[in-house]
Design a protein that fits this description.
8 helices; three-stranded antiparallel sheet; globular; alpha+beta; 230 residues; 10 strands
């Protein structure tokens, strides 16, 4: 992974400045793919598309934030690195707070937020795999926003989110059928999960289908690693 110099961006709400990470290049070495569709690649990490301002605590889409030229910021490279916070991924509760608000402009926005809310919850289980052989070197897996305690309130939000996410998929794409099958498995809807898996015939998704089907047969709801690249 080769990072570039971070870019200064400005919160659209209050003009507070923050740093956006930039990558020149990366690769999928030590990447892990999960049954819920999350891909973790320490050398090619996902960057936040949505973040919350450190100052005003409002959410904004990073692509809509104004980029500030170095000369405009009035900060040297050293001061920029020490005085400005890097943008981060929202937490479970922050993603949840975005639902039903004006930050969501269309179906794709809602799917993005609901999937990452789902992933935040599943990160609780992902963290339990880090000591196993598949994660012999787990460094670089960014899960700072993972749920740390599966309370009834959090689990109820998670279940409602999964049900709402299922309603957003129309089944026209095999990837959506696969995601729906995994959502049903996470909810314990074993029959519905198996029915949807029958619709996924792409060879590229075969490893996911096999893993999810095996988990259904075992009555296992938890997210599972599908594959790892050396």
């Amino acid at each position: 992974m080769i990072p570039d110099i971070p870019v200064i961006i400005e919160c659209p709400h209050c003009q507070h400045q923050a740093l956006k990470e930039i990558l020149i290049s990366g690769n999928t070495a030590r990447a892990v793919h999960w049954t819920d569709g999350k891909h973790e690649a320490p050398r090619l990490p996902e960057m936040p598309r949505l973040t919350f301002c450190d100052a005003c605590k409002q959410p904004y889409w990073v692509e809509n934030a104004k980029e500030i030229e170095d000369g405009e910021s009035g900060l040297s490279a050293e001061r920029k690195a020490t005085q400005l916070q890097r943008i981060t991924f929202p937490s479970f509760s922050e993603y949840q707070s975005c639902l039903g608000t004006e930050i969501i402009k269309d179906r794709n926005d809602e799917i993005y937020i609901r999937i990452r809310l789902w992933w935040c919850y599943n990160d609780y289980y992902r963290n339990t795999y880090d000591n196993e052989e598949i994660f012999s070197d787990p460094r670089g897996f960014e899960r700072s926003n993972a749920v740390t305690d599966l309370t009834k309130e959090i689990t109820d939000i998670y279940i409602d989110n999964c049900r709402s996410l299922l309603k957003l998929f129309n089944g026209q794409k095999q990837e959506e059928s696969l995601t729906s099958a995994e959502l049903h498995r996470n909810l314990g809807d074993w029959g519905d999960s198996l029915i949807l898996l029958e619709l996924v015939t792409s060879e590229d998704l075969e490893s996911y289908v096999k893993k999810i089907r095996k988990c259904v047969e075992l009555g296992d709801k938890k997210v599972q690693p599908v594959s790892r690249f050396a």
